[in-house]
Amino acid sequence: MAIEVQVRTTPEATVVRLSGVGCGELLEMVAQGLREVAQDCALLVIDLDDAVLSDAAHLQAFVGAVADAGSAVRIVCRRLSGRRLLRAGGSRRCPPVVGSMEEALATAVRPVARQADPWFAASAGG
Questions:
Q1: Is 17:47 a contact under the CB 8 Å cutoff?
Q2: What's the CATH number for 3-125?
């Protein structure tokens, strides 16, 4: 298994494209590198369209680690099944998952609306 990482800087964001097949420890290494990249940018866009990330548990750990990177993070995945898998972990730390690069870059201008926290809404209301 091998995964290729390409990093490109645009005026709006740092775009990281992953391609190939990765799971387990490989994803942990990639996540560590992405945390370092994220320290130097306002918006980190991770493009997973050409990546096959086969281990759901490690994928959720990867997403959580990337979410903790410190900058705004968006994940691009055009495949509906991939977006579902990314969101399925139920982690509140999961960055927004969008279907296109245009959608991800548009959030550099306006923030992505987050889902309301049902616990907070219930406790604030009464």
A1: yes
A2: 3.30.750.24
Find out whether 17 and 50 touch, Cβ atoms under 8 Å.
Answer: yes
Residue 5 CA, distance from chain mean position: 14
Tens of pLDDT along the chain (126 residues)? 688 888 898 888 889 898 888 777 777 788 888 877 777 788 889 898 888 876 677 777 777 777 776 678 888 888 887 777 777 765 566 788 888 999 988 876 554 444 444 544 444 444
- With a CB cutoff of 8 Å and minimum separation 6, the contacts of 68 are 35, 93
CA separation for the pair 101, 15 (Å, rounded)? 9
**Helix, strand, coil percentages for the chain (3-state, nearest 5):** 40, 25, 35
Query: HSE-up of 55 (CA within 13 Å, CB side)?
Result: 13
Q: What are phi and psi of 15, to 5 degrees?
A: -105, 125
pTM of the model: 0.74
